[in-house]
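so i finally got all the pieces together for this one. its two components total, 772 residues if u count the protein bits. some of the lines might not be protein, just check the labels. i wanna see the whole assembly predicted at once instead of chain by chain like last time, that was a mess tbh
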Amino acid sequence: MPVIDYIDAIRLAMKEEMERDEDVFVLGEDVGLKGGVFTTTKGLQEQFGELRAMDTPLAESAIAGVAIGAAMYGMKPIAEMQYSDFMFPATNQIISEAAKIRYRSNNDWTCPVVVRAPIGGGVFGGLYHSQCPESVFFGTPGLKIVAPYRAYDAKGLLKAAVRDPDPVIYFENKKCYKLINGEVPEEDYTVPIGKANVLREGEDITVIGYSLPLLFVEQAAEDLAGEGISAHILDLRTLQPLDKEAILEAVRRTGKVLIIHEDNKTGGIGAEVSAIIAEELLYELDAPIMRLCGPDVPAMPINPPGEKFFMLNKEKVKEAMRNLALY
Amino acid sequence: MKTLTEIVVPQLAESLVSATIDKWLKKPGDWVDIYEPICELLTDKVNAELPSTVSGKLVQILVGNGETVPVGTAVCVIETESGASGEASADSRPDYTGSVQASPGAAAPAGDSEDAPMRGRFSPAVQQLAAEHAIRLTDVAGTGLGGRITRKDVLAYAASGAGKSNQQVNAVLNGNGGSHAVDAAAQVRSSGLHLTETPRLPKIEVEGAAGLGRGDSFIDVTPIRNTIARNMRQSVSEIPHAWTMIEVDVTNLVLLRNKLKDEFMKREGINLTYLAFLLKAVVNAIKDFPIMNSMWAVDKIIVKRDINISLAVGTEDSVMTPVIKNADHKNVAGLAKEIEELARKTRDGKLTLSDMQGGTFTVNNTGSFGSILSYPIINYPQAAILTFESIVKRPVVINDMLAVRSMANLCLSLDHRILDGVICGRFLQRVKDNLESFNTESKLY
């Protein structure tokens, strides 16, 4: 199996889906001629033409709205938000239209749209190129939200999202693009939406997370194994719907759970995961449910020390994991 | 003094995680000024020159031409003079490990019973496992924070088989297979109810309990009911009530009203009630006897200047006392309108707080529900309350002759701290005179 970068896994997924189904097309700012500001859509316009790798004006509301309309009409659009930070003008389209159309029309209409948006900081992007807006869309029934961490899942989940009959938000982590790589099969496969994945088996603590911070968790787990602490790591992969069974099974394993994400703590995914655990597993908990998340400050600072303070890293994660193990 | 400073690969673009050194522009031994390019970098997004962050002598190149390294990696070392070491200390790589190693001091070695504040705190998982395996937790060593017994401690203890011998003991002690992990003897708490105990419920035998639940029903006390109850109790318990009654001949008033009521209805759209006339009579009497319009203030009596008449208006399930403000400024027609307005608001539940405040004397039209005699409770903190009873035709002796007259009773409850019989008698007599002096020539406006 070839080892490829996370960003190439995303590009391959789009390329293969566009080859498989001519209803699939991508649209967004600079996705055509330039091939995307991160090169995510590089080569797609050459291969599929301007109409299937479509450059749009700088208007996220229009990108989402056009994609939603096309999807309702039977196309399979992949709408790219250049940065998830710029996604907010499109929230009305996504939350009020895409998420509701099936329900609102009593199954007469569907909206098989995929909205791709790069999340996350640590790239010296400052306030408007670093946000994690998961919590804005999380808890909107009618939306599916995926946030892959491994290259394998990046490709498999994007293919699953394209083939899903309902709107899917695909949060790809921009820091993972070149940082994360892994074995990705050449043959066609999908990763089911709504299924979490155990990254590492362990007995002392359970760590639940998604996207980039799992890299720090894996690195920290490796270090902590040397200290005799064995960590069980669960990659949520899909944020909505959450894989409840997998969460409960992972927590049951150790009775001690740490939830990690880069989005800020208050009202984040971790709050819901924590509530599920508290509702279902009180009598199997051996320690308070712990969370390690971005701080509740308005945005990623632009200055390097501030960014370092905001971002999770291996040391912060390791310390939290060790404290939970020692509890 | 010389200081060595590392130059690192900076974050050149958002998605950049690594960079390749294309070509070194300086070689070891060269002098480098601050911001002077030292090498060229190749990345996926940009090609750039790497400027020096300090001035000094390049002493060592760490990464050679063509090598690719992650962002943040040191590529060379520059020796600077100590005087200009401001940059050196501003090295942008704070060391996290220092703080990490310092902090887990909280996780002090466990097991020492003197220093084990968490020894007696059992997590739900620990309690459940202890119950399942019939383990007495006092026998288990704790390896967690502050000597806490962790889930794994219990599992290890169970696996070692050490708990087995206790199983029978516990079964005998508890008589239920040892389901209580922490038995009574091991409890630290000496008072109160322990969570693992079944709460002690007192057994109460109620005599004639069979009678309950057979046709009796409970009505929740509404806030308005509660307010009425509180006010009534306060009035009855604080105010020494006295009571008196007078009989009034309202025959002429009946004639007057019959003469005017149709036209009044046409003109004003509302009923011309007897109550309006009564209020006029009462208000005029209060003007003559202001002490009726007062309240008890322990060391003094407050006589109110404004005459604000509280009007008792009943609904199906409560009674309200909306207030006609400055009733002495109004004529009979004006009073009739006020009565109509307040009664409507009360029925519709539209009374506002200001409609209810400031009353100085209360009138209750008890005749409207057929009463001929009532004993009203004073509307606290007022001094008196007057009821207007049903108008009934009765044989009356006038000048030693029998006549059929329309008669009505007025009842007055009074605060005997403020008022006495004489003044109240005079007041009632004045109300009676006022009512009886209405005749078919009286004006409403």
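The longest helix of chain B spans residues 251-268.
Residues 115-184 of chain B form one domain.
anyway lmk what u think
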